[in-house]
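User: Sequence in, structure out. Go.
Assistant: Echoing your sequence, followed by the C-alpha cells.
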Amino acid sequence: MTIGEKIYNLRKAKNYSQEEVANHLNVSRQTVSKWETDQSTPDFDKIVPLCELFEISTDEFLKGETNISKKDDDGKDKKRNAIIVSVSIFLYFLAIIWIALAESMYIKEEITVAGFLFISGIATIMLIYNSLLSEKNYKETIEFTKKPNKKENKLKKSIIDALGIIFCIVYLAVSFITMAWHITWIIWLIYAFVIKIVDLLFMLGGKNGK
C-alpha cells in the first residue's frame, strides 16, 4: 500500500473531507489530493500532524499495513444492529398480537394470515438485511487490512446460500403441514442467529490465520 493510499483510507475511515485535512495541516486541498494520488508525498514536518489527525503512530503510517482504529464505526454498527434486532423482535410480537386481536374481532382468516405474514415478513427482511450489511462491513474491513481469502469467501457464500435454501424449505414445509404460521416464523429468527454464528466462525478463523 502506497503512502497516498494510506492517507486516502485513513481520511475515509475518519469521514474527513480533503478540505478538512488540508485546513488542519495548513496546506491546500490540491496538495492533499496530490498526496492521495501519489503525485507527491507529505513533507517531513507534515508526517506527525497527519498521524495525530488520524490517531495513529508514525511507525504505523510509514511501515507496513496501517491498522486503522474503527471504534466510532464499530459503535455505530453495534447501535444499528441493536435497533434493527429490537424493532424486528417487536414486529414479531406485534404479529402475534395481531393474530389474537383478529380472532377476537372475528376478522376473516385470510386477512388474519395475510396481516401476520406481512408484519413477520418485514421483521424477517430486516434481520436478513442486517445480517447482509454486517457481512459487507466485515468484508470491507478484511479487504482494508489484508488481502481477501478468495477460497474462504467462496466457502462462506456457499454455506450461507445453502442455509438460506434449507431454512426456506423447512419453513414452508413446516408451515403448510402444521398451518401454525403464527409460530413457524421462529424458524427465520433461528436462521438469522445461525448466519451470525457463521459470520463469527469465519471472522475468528480469519484472525487465527493471520
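User: And one key feature?
Assistant: The mean pLDDT is 76.
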